[in-house]
Amino acid sequence: MTEPRILRLYLEDGLRQSAEAGAHNFIARVVSVLRQARYRVEFRPNSPAERRKSATRRGYALFHMDGPVQARTLTFRRAYHYPFWFIERSGVRWDWPVARARFPADAVPRARADRFFAFWRTRLFGSAPARAGREGFVYVPLQGRLLIRRPFQTCAPIDMLRAVLGHDARPVVAALHPNEVYSSDELRALDELCSAHPRLSLATGGMERLLSGCDYVATMNSGAGFAGYFFARPLVLFADIDFHHIAANVSALGVEEALRAAPDLAPDYAGYLHWFWQDMAINAGRPGAEAKIRAALARGGWPLDDG
Questions:
Q1: What does the alpha-carbon distance between residue 249 and residue 247 come to, in Å, rounded to a whole number?
Q2: What CATH number did the domain enclosing 194 receive?
């Protein structure tokens, strides 16, 4: 049975109203592509009830951040900073094509990549990356659920901290995520680690300051690791993620080798970020954005002929 050309965009409050007003640049471009292909566009709340209903509705659905619930659903998500986006079949970043692709380090368009890197480094962080210097500590940005190991992780986050402390003699700053709520058991475990290891200290937030001074970053898969690339900070990853290509990956190298190698890593940060954002993601600020959107929707199996 041919599906009707109806697109339902499931968006949280605030974003939905902005999209309905045509004020969100990326969503406006997605809507433009689909209306050109004769889709009727509806804006829906991105609530659990609406997502459940979407599984039985005819037509096509696009979720913001949440994973698809049926074959005609795609998800879109910011590629860490505006105006860069991905539209994918999966809500899991490490399953995306960019995660499985090879970074072509031997084919970087040097001048373009360097200009791109310099522009975005300054645009996002001002003069901080240029002024940054290594101060002899390891920055460990934490996320949530510190005491359990999830399937995409090599260990529980608390054990990641223990591993860093056990394999590197430098001071370690573990930064709690400002938007996470930590349990009393999690906070107790952190306090016990601090008592056992006086060179471990805790912070909340402070990403830019900590990136400016650390020797390297060790994390599960925090976006702070991606931001660290703009500061030329080597990265150790203890979990799967889409920006793993130039990091020391514990899943591939093991804990000891990844932490041993990290301080001396010097990948092509400019070339990598140019490839990740300009080649693999959709830059909604560029004239070619609608062509990339169209290609992403077509990869997702959506009909985009003129109807």
A1: 6
A2: 3.40.50
Residues 127 and 161 in one domain: yes
Tokens of 139: 């920055």
What's the first-to-final CA gap in the chain, in angstroms? 15
What's the CA gap between 163 and 156, in Å, rounded?
11
One domain, residues 119 and 259 = yes
| Residue 172 β-bridge partners | 138, 200
pTM, two decimals, is: 0.95
Query: Domain containing 223: what range?
Result: 107-270
Task: Give one word for 75, left, alpha or beta, with left for phi > 0 and alpha for psi -120 to 50.
Answer: beta
Whether 92 is covered by a domain: the verdict is no
Note the pLDDT tens digit of each residue in 60-95. 999 999 988 889 999 999 999 999 999 999 999 999
Distance, in Å, from the CA atom of 114 to the CA atom of 157, rounded to the nearest integer, reads 35
